[in-house]
């Protein structure tokens, strides 16, 4: 089977290439793909261990099994620019924006997700968010590292509030700082999409006549399709040197 391996930032520079197609035997794992990469890129250190791995836009580990046509992305660590937080305290969008301000950033874009008073015309009284807070914070942190590597954004933060929220309360804040506005806007949107799809946070809507948990399972194929059709897909394809996927 054939697998595409992508490298970013310092990994790309050290290897002297940004992508490599490798042929692997059936039953191969990410570790086997990394071994094939090391054979093709002798400039990488022999003890090379990727900091973050994604297979078909989903986080993975070295033991993750691969299939023909899989896309394996290897991301290096980011120096201090990613900031993730999950908790019950009220969120401050200005504080999040200040956290990503840098003298070299010409754009700071902030997103606030707020509790609305209706769903499909049905009045909402309040919301309740539940999370595995440690896992949610870890997942968001990995999303931020991935986003910084893919979009070239030097500073980004995301804070998710859990517990009881009243109408108008802020449940999610994402702030991205970048030298230019395009990267900042698209990186923030990408983070919000990723959080909605893969972070273990659940929402219950309370109505006058009942309550309901809100959410939809998103399998890896559906998630990858969404990312390929989102507004940032063309930007990422151009950055990675491939044509954007059509909406077919």
Task: Describe, in plain words, how this protein is organized in 3D.
This protein is an alpha+beta fold. It folds into 2 domains: 2-75, Ubiquitin-like (UB roll) (Roll), CATH 3.10.20; 82-240, Molybdopterin biosynthesis MoaE subunit (Aldehyde Oxidoreductase, domain 3, Alpha-Beta Complex), CATH 3.90.1170.40. Helices cover 32% and strands 32% of the residues. It contains 7 helices and 15 strands. The strands form 4 sheets. The protein has a 5-stranded mixed sheet with strand order 2-1-5-3-4, sandwiched between helices. Strands 6-11-13-7 form a 4-stranded mixed sheet, sandwiched between helices. α4 packs antiparallel against α5 (181-198). The longest helix is centred in the middle third of the chain and has 19 residues, at 133-151. The radius of gyration is 20 Å and the shape is globular.
In short:
The chain has 248 residues and is of the alpha+beta class. The protein contains 7 helices and 15 strands.
Helix content: 25-40%
How does the overall form come out from the CA principal axes?
globular
Strand content: 25-35%
Q: How far apart lie the N and C ends?
A: 26 Å
Number of helices: 7
Rg, Å, rounded: 20 Å
Order of secondary-structure elements:
EHEHEEEEHEEEEHEEEHEEHH
- Kindly name the structural category: alpha+beta
